[in-house]
Amino acid sequence: MRLAVASGKGGTGKTTVALNMALSLENVRLLDCDVEEPDCHLFLDVELEEVEKITLPQPKIDNDKCNLCGVCAGLCQFNAIVVPPTGPMLFPELCRSCGLCKIGCPEDAITEESRIIGSVEKGEGELDFYQGILVTGEHLASPVIRAVKKNAGTEIDSIIDVPPGNACSAVEAIEGSSFCVLVTEPTPFGLHDLKYSVRMLNQREIPYGVVVNRVGIGDDRVEKYCEREGISVLMRIPNERRIAELYSEGVPFVKCMPSWREKFSELYERILESID
Fold it and tell me: Do 22 and 268 touch, CB atoms closer than 8 A?
């Protein structure tokens, strides 16, 4: 099984839920696909080792062959190439690596070279763990996320820490999951973004349930919305000082509050039963 843990907005406790659940179970693998800001490793006793560099093809223009016709610039829908009289210019940060400019160049003046956009690291220690890291300034997170997800395998259940929000990176991380846990908070902002996540998962026909974090800081509108829409509230985590203190110290709270280890284990079993 691949279990995605997602949230409509950042800061709701998505990583907290993914981490504490993974640490409450045996024989699971945690995949941190929040590649723009991976932070699961900060709470784990693991030694990280790079196992793969992620690259994409990038145009390389031969100025000696280029006749400044501008065909490549006209083909590029992302304005990554411009051709002024002084010679062609490439803006790598805009390139989507589609290869159309290379195919369309009438002078065969464009080849491709590899550009490193990120890497995958494996963690050895208390948990079977992989994470992706997007190079600072790069914008194409999906290839790195796909590379991390290749390590999910079939011999072991995987928990995927999904990037926050509902953009392409979140969709990529959730794609192919057996179930998705949506983590929200009982606030107007939490409810607003939860609705967008629900819409996305309904479109992709992925089953899901909700974990409400920091119960007690807001109101009951999230609960009423879930009841009205027939969405299961799988767990409620209180806005408890001890949990916040442990988080600030970089300690997953199941390590010091063993009753929660049992609750996360029960949550996982309920999810398994719901998708059988």
Answer: no
